Amino acid sequence: MKTKFLKDQIILKNSFLCLGLDSDINKIPSHLLKETDPIFLFNKLLIDELNSLIVAVKINTAFYEANGSKGWETLEKTISYINNTYPNLFTIADAKRGDIGNTSDKYAQAFFKHMKFDSITVSPYMGNDSIEPFLKYDEKHTILLGLTSNEGSKDFQVSEDSEKDFYKKVLIKSQKWKNSKNLMYVVGATKASFLKDIRSIIPNSFLLIPGVGAQGGSLEETYKNGVNNEIGILVNSSRSIIYAGNGTDFVDYAYNEAKELQNQMKKLLND
Amino acid sequence: MKTKFLKDQIILKNSFLCLGLDSDINKIPSHLLKETDPIFLFNKLLIDELNSLIVAVKINTAFYEANGSKGWETLEKTISYINNTYPNLFTIADAKRGDIGNTSDKYAQAFFKHMKFDSITVSPYMGNDSIEPFLKYDEKHTILLGLTSNEGSKDFQVSEDSEKDFYKKVLIKSQKWKNSKNLMYVVGATKASFLKDIRSIIPNSFLLIPGVGAQGGSLEETYKNGVNNEIGILVNSSRSIIYAGNGTDFVDYAYNEAKELQNQMKKLLND
């Protein structure tokens, strides 16, 4: 799926919302625990209810790996269900991978060929030859960590002198990599004020913006500083939607939470 | 397993060799392909033959994930076999993980609790709160990427002015993190000349050194610049050992290759 299609979906649905499936066996409603695969059912019910409000789904691989190969089966079932039932949803494997070339090749196989995700998040630390095995898939997107939303982002990503911010070096240099047109970037919404700087470096790239909701970023500020001619932003929300309710009616609570975000997005898109 | 035990094993076996299981279905001997789980058998045969020559095993998760949940089953079988049969081998999940706190917690669960690896490789980009969920496991080791052995390491890890090398900032800052005593570091052997600098910053840490063999680093130079009072180095070799032969006698070729390295290590350790 290419970004042109994603933009069309955003306009069609009046939404740039990405649903994050950080689905945790310790947090899902207890009535699901008697099912064969509680996490898959939790995911399915959420997507069935919310698909009209969202344009993308982000699956956080850690929450599946915590249950080993059984968790990976749930991951496979979830992505397969989405691809088969809602092919217009843009899918993101939030996996933060990255390794030497022959190894990144295998990760790309796992997520792009075996599971058919549209995109994957990757870490820049090992440089171009760790990312190019992902970028060579022309119908896929590789979402590079830029500025993340956590407290620890201060350790290495930013400097006292903002001219020397390390994340800016990542943005600038990655634009020169082969097939860099297939890049998107992760930029934390808790740093919405940084988005002006970021847009001056990568005006045209799509941004995946986590940190609205549980992590506290403002949607309006994020939109105003992040939007470009292609719209160019996906805002992810995970915990504040999927754990909004905890009873047999949890999808209603999730729907309402997502609907409120989507209403705000509709207003921003049409103002 | 703590490093004191690892040091004792190194002295006992006259070896600081780590066997890297980058086991690729497209590269293993063809006679194994008729088996139920060819990769597990390939791994088992190698470890059964080589366990006296090695002190550690590094399993590269990408090669297993490429086969999805079935690959993860092979991964689980492999680590379980090693833990049950050769408990004195130090095990490394070469996974290059790292994410916000609640997510790294799940990765730590996957590799430390579910699969019982002794250690995992992690990427520093997201900073302290992305690594501390691993570091809090006191009987485990968290192996942080420092200077990697690939060409792309030049993109971000080093600078024209070596004083400003980014990887040095990673080494220095990470030493101040909570439970940093549980850290080890990945340092590519193709950069053995850098090891003096590295040892001046982290004199006491154990180093995992890939890049001897297929990637071309020199064992003697690596040893001389990397060894400390606790010995403090593990040298990994993957492809040059596991793919040394390709027939029904592939373990003999692998043994000879590992034995040659171990002989060199014995000499270095005893000189």
General description of the model:
- The structure is a homodimer.
- With about 270 residues, chain A is α/β, with parallel strands linked by helices.
- Chain A has one domain (about 5-270): TIM Barrel (Alpha-Beta Barrel).
- Chain A has twelve helices and eight strands.
- Chain A has helices at about 5-15, 40-50, 60-65, 70-85, 100-115, 130-135, 155, 165-175, 195-200, 220-225, 240, 250-270, and strands at about 15-20, 55-60, 90-95, 120, 140-145, 185, 205-210, 235.
- In chain A, strands 1-2-3-4-5-6-7-8 form an eight-stranded parallel barrel, surrounded by six helices.
- The longest helix of chain A is centred in the C-terminal third of the chain and has 21 residues, at about 250-270.
- Chain A is globular, with a radius of gyration of 18 Å.
- Chain A starts with a helix and ends with a helix.
- The model of chain A has no long low-confidence stretch (mean pLDDT about 95).
Element layout with pairings:
The structure is a homodimer of 271-residue chains.
Chain A: H1 3-13, E1 17-21, H2 38-50, E2 56-60, H3 61-65, H4 68-85, E3 90-97, H5 101-114, E4 119-122, H6 128-135, E5 141-147, H7 153-156, H8 166-174, E6 183-187, H9 195-201, E7 207-209, H10 219-226, E8 233-237, H11 239-242, H12 250-270
Helix pairs in contact in A: 2-4, 2-12, 5-6, 10-12
